[in-house]
Design a protein that fits this description.
This protein is an alpha+beta fold and 223 residues long. It is built from 3 helices and 13 strands, in the order E-H-E-E-E-E-H-E-E-E-E-E-E-H-E-E. The protein has a single domain, classed as Jelly Rolls (Sandwich), CATH 2.60.120.
Length: 223
């Protein structure tokens, strides 16, 4: 659900998670068929570290399971699916039921809604232990997702390279996602572009990203 008027909230936590919302660092990252905007340094380094450590303990992390050529594979990367009731999510052939929101995640969600100007009801968290773990080329276009909604991604931890590849002409646009930064991917980005978190041989520490989404809560009702 799109927010019709800008709204502002106070984060009631022991640490101030978010700095004053900044304008995007530059214009649209995509040359056509969608838009994506990058917001650096939304959270300062110390608060990012504290938030990372808090989420490691407060979220129920599980190894991700996906189907590849009909075979179920368990990844080293860990994930958590958090959301409102009735916000189940199926990707790569595996259905996930939502964990309840934690107070920290609700506070972050509120701020992400301000930046994206959209109401979110779910969040997929990914934990990459090192540079050998990444995410292959894909688009977030599952049927239960609201195709008109943006996806807002918060990065914590290691600086990692992220890339977009156009589905037709294979052109590539990439950037490094810094600790404490936010990337907003707007519709129709998912229809025309795949994206990937690229692996690297560099000895990097762990990275966490939180992708806030809008699930259609009625997606499981008979049509």
């Amino acid at each position: 659900m799109k927010l019709t008027q800008p709204q502002y909230w106070v984060i009631n936590m022991q640490i101030q998670l978010f700095e004053k919302t900044q304008a995007p660092s530059h214009q649209n990252l995509l040359p056509k068929d969608g838009s994506a905007y990058y917001y650096p340094e939304i959270i300062d380094e110390l608060s990012s570290k504290q938030l990372f450590e808090t989420l490691i303990q407060s979220v129920d992390w599980q190894p991700d399971q996906i189907y590849i050529f009909g075979k179920k594979v368990t990844t080293q990367r860990k994930v958590a699916w958090v959301g409102d009731v009735n916000c189940s999510y199926t990707y790569s052939g595996v259905k996930k039921q939502p964990q309840p929101w934690t107070s920290e995640l609700l506070s972050i969600k509120t701020q992400m809604e301000e930046i994206a100007q959209w109401k979110f009801n779910s969040c997929l968290l990914n934990l990459y232990h090192n540079g050998n773990e990444g995410m292959g080329w894909h688009s977030d276009n599952e049927t239960e997702l609201d195709s008109t909604a943006p996806i807002a991604s918060l990065s914590l931890g290691a600086r990692r390279k992220f890339a977009f590849k156009h589905k037709l002409d294979k052109s590539v646009s990439s950037l490094f996602l810094e600790n404490g930064s936010v990337l907003i991917m707007h519709s129709p980005c998912q229809e025309s572009w795949n994206h990937s978190l690229l692996k690297t041989k560099l000895p990097l520490p762990a990275r966490m990203n939180l992708t806030f989404r809008a699930i259609n809560p009625n997606h499981e009702l008979p049509k």
